[in-house]
Write a structure and sequence with these properties.
single chain; 468 residues; alpha+beta; six-stranded mixed beta sheet; five-stranded antiparallel beta sheet; 20% strand
Length: 468
């Protein structure tokens, strides 16, 4: 009886000790691993109360220009100020006690508020060392270029993305319509209920058929898979009959006559690229989209909507030809197409895109500097140079002549993407200078019609500012 009692006591002791160890490990995990996440979480009331009495760090552009900062208000607390208003709204977001946080204000809240700190894992002891000093967050954005891109879009709905090809740094990201974050609480009902969706960041979350701006990628795939050569020609009669009851047509059924691959891109020949898509077949086209990263997430900084790719294995010939000209069920973001242009500009290498340049204490002590990182290598330099030459022809003598800049060689591709819900979307992607690219760009104008007539001139304005 005594032995049973001793054994039971021993077993209960083991269980209690095990529970204490589990509890200790759980508390340690929360205190050390999860502490910064929990303390900076927008639903944490303590952090909300803290922010009423303490200034947040500033958000700066690449040249130190203030994009967001805190100043004292009448209640002896602090209010957030956004000097660029609607121009930067989708990037910076907003910081509101009533509505919460959005954009950089949300994703980097821990640093901007000063609540994220490596020493916080020490628990109460950390209070001896941590003074909750806020951090300034410096972006890769160029405020003057952002402003020029915003102005260039005019009253159109659409988006512009500008990337530095060699580093992946985002220099500008504009979406219209926009909103003024300085008055977000006052105007929330009008903004949130607007039929033009000003809260939507069209650059990263707008999904559109790419139209003809996908053709350079299809051309590269056709050359890589040896289904076509640079010397081969095709006779475009204005239509391509596919199967017994489907016809792929050129705009206005215009026949381009005998064209090689370079000429086909310059005049944006649907017959050529519909034919190439059929010759490539569904599996090779699927591999091409995979090779260029269309089914991969690139960075959590942007919260980009995933591309909508068709189920290639189930596509009929007509649908496959539509993919070859950027139509059908294929949907992409303007940000993704800027990355495609950047890939060709950077000799076939896709750098991981980023928008945060550095994070530093307000006293100047830098705690994080971004280092450029290679993301994908979908093609080699030789192939990239071939595509670049074709894109130069587009601007010099093809559909993109409105993007020409005096004394600077521009490479680009226009697109007029059919839209089942209204007028076609106008696209342009490209980069400049073509022989030593400094910037790559994507422009979309919703329901704008002609890519060459509408999007290309807008791209020209922005490239002029970027290359000053």
């Amino acid at each position: 009886m005594r032995n049973d009692l001793s054994g039971n006591i021993r077993r209960v002791s083991y269980v209690l000790i095990s529970l204490i160890i589990v509890l200790f490990l759980h508390i340690s995990y929360i205190q050390v691993i999860e502490s910064n996440f929990l303390i900076s979480h927008p639903l944490n009331r303590r952090s909300v109360e803290y922010e009423k009495k303490n200034a947040r760090g500033a958000v700066l552009d690449r040249n130190g220009e203030k994009l967001a900062y805190s100043e004292k208000d009448d209640s002896n607390g602090y209010r957030r100020v956004y000097p660029y208003g609607a121009i930067m709204a989708h990037l910076i977001g907003y910081n509101s006690i009533k509505l919460g946080k959005n954009g950089i204000e949300s994703s980097y809240n821990g640093y901007l508020s000063g609540l994220s700190n490596p020493d916080r894992g020490l628990g109460p002891v950390s209070q001896l060392f941590v003074n909750n000093q806020a951090y300034d967050v410096t972006l890769t954005i160029d405020a003057s270029l952002q402003s020029a891109a915003y102005k260039a879009l005019g009253n159109n709905r659409g988006a512009i993305v500008v990337i530095e090809p060699r580093s992946g740094a985002v220099l500008a990201m504009v979406s219209k319509p926009s909103f003024d974050p300085n008055n977000i609480e006052k105007n929330w009902d009008d903004i949130s209920n607007s039929i033009v969706s000003p809260l939507l960041n069209r650059a990263t979350n707008g999904l559109y058929p790419p139209g003809s701006i996908i053709k350079p990628m299809i051309a590269e795939a056709a050359l890589a898979e040896k289904v076509v050569s640079l010397k081969e020609t095709i006779n475009c009669r204005g239509t391509l009959k596919i199967g017994p009851d489907y016809v792929l047509s050129e705009n206005n059924n215009k026949a381009h006559g005998v064209v090689d691959l370079s000429k086909a891109i310059a005049v944006s020949c649907n017959v050529t690229f519909g034919s190439l898509a059929l010759e490539l077949g569904s599996s090779r086209i699927a591999r091409t989209f995979d090779r260029y990263g269309f089914n991969k997430s690139n960075s959590r900084e942007f919260n980009e909507s995933a591309s909508r790719l068709p189920d290639f294995a189930k596509l009929g010939d007509g649908d496959l030809a539509q993919v070859g000209i950027g139509q059908g069920s294929l949907l992409v973001t303007p940000f993704r197409m800027a990355m495609l242009a950047s890939t060709f500009a950077n000799s076939g290498t896709t750098m991981k895109p980023h928008i945060i340049s550095r994070i530093a204490r307000t006293d100047g002590n830098v705690i994080q500097n971004h280092v450029p990182e290679e993301w994908l290598k979908p093609l080699d330099k030789k192939s990239s140079d071939i595509i670049t030459d074709m894109l130069v022809d587009v601007v010099e003598s093809g559909t993109g002549i409105s993007a020409q800049i005096k004394n600077i060689t521009v490479a680009g591709k226009t697109g007029t993407a059919e839209n089942p819900h209204g007028a076609s979307h106008a696209w342009f992607i490209g980069f400049a200078p073509a022989d030593n690219p400094e910037v790559a760009i994507a422009v979309i104008v919703e329901n704008g019609g002609s890519g060459g007539g509408v999007a290309a001139p807008i791209a020209r304005q922005v490239l002029l500012q970027a290359l000053r």
